[in-house]
């Protein structure tokens, strides 16, 4: 018996032959993706941070947040301390101003008491005493920055005067102050009160 391999039968003309089955070949780049050991992609294949790097960043963010929170709390404390200090200083200034005003008025009170103590012994001297005390009180107000205002014959100024009457005065220019009914104290912008006046009537 012959041991030679049998040759395949010749294909008749016009017959359709089935394509030979191709061997499964690895896709291009598959070997590189599996690595030299034939394993799948490693944890760093996608380029993402490792677990250690993520923990480190989280720690840095937590430290930065804690520092900002500490600064914010310190700023709030400083602001509250500033507010309290300002309130104390404002109260001290008010108390000092009240004290300065009282000191300026003390001589007026002393002279009033002195005039009253001598009123029974010499009633006529009471008038002179009251005049002196009046001048002293006006001077005390001027010392505090509130000069007495009571001029006549000056043009009416709405910033300084308050009209309480209108009179006919042929010798006065219309709109001028002809009578002071109540003096004022202080300049425009820092008045204790305006001057109450009567002005000449305009024709």
UniProtKB/TrEMBL annotation:
Gene field: grpE
Stretches of the chain forming a coiled coil according to its record: 65-99
Function: Participates actively in the response to hyperosmotic and heat shock by preventing the aggregation of stress-denatured proteins, in association with DnaK and GrpE. It is the nucleotide exchange factor for DnaK and may function as a thermosensor. Unfolded proteins bind initially to DnaJ; upon interaction with the DnaJ-bound protein, DnaK hydrolyzes its bound ATP, resulting in the formation of a stable complex. GrpE releases ADP from DnaK; ATP binding to DnaK triggers the release of the substrate protein, thus completing the reaction cycle.
Record keywords: Chaperone, Coiled coil, Cytoplasm, Stress response
Region Disordered: start-end pairs: 1-63
Protein name: Protein GrpE
PANTHER family per UniProt: GRPE PROTEIN, GRPE PROTEIN HOMOLOG, MITOCHONDRIAL
A GO biological process held by the record: protein folding
Gene Ontology CC annotation, any one: cytoplasm
Subcellular location: Cytoplasm
Gene3D superfamilies (alphabetical): 3.90.20.20, Head domain of nucleotide exchange factor GrpE
Main location group: cytoplasm
CDD domains given in the database record: GrpE
Family indicated by similarity: Belongs to the GrpE family.
Assembly, per entry: Homodimer.
Pfam families linked to this entry: GrpE
One of the record's GO molecular function terms: adenyl-nucleotide exchange factor activity
């Amino acid at each position: 018996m012959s041991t030679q391999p049998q040759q395949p039968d010749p294909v008749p003309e016009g017959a359709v032959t089935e394509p030979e089955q191709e061997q499964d070949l690895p896709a291009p780049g598959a070997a590189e993706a599996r690595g030299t050991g034939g394993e799948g992609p490693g944890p760093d294949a996608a380029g993402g941070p490792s677990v250690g790097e993520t923990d480190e960043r989280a720690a840095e963010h937590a430290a930065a947040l804690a520092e900002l929170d500490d600064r914010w709390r310190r700023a709030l404390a400083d602001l509250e301390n500033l507010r309290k200090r300002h309130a104390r200083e404002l109260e001290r200034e008010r108390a000092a101003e009240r004290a300065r005003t009282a000191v300026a008025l003390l001589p007026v009170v002393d002279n009033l008491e002195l005039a009253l103590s001598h009123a029974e012994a010499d009633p006529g001297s009471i008038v002179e005493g009251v005049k002196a005390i009046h001048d002293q009180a006006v001077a005390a107000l001027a010392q505090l920055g509130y000069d007495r205002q009571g001029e006549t014959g000056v043009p009416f100024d709405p910033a300084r005067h308050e009209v309480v009457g209108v009179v006919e005065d042929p010798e006065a220019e219309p709109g001028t102050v002809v009578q002071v009914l109540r003096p004022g104290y202080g300049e425009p912008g820092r008045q204790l009160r305006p001057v109450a006046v009567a002005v000449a009537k305009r024709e």
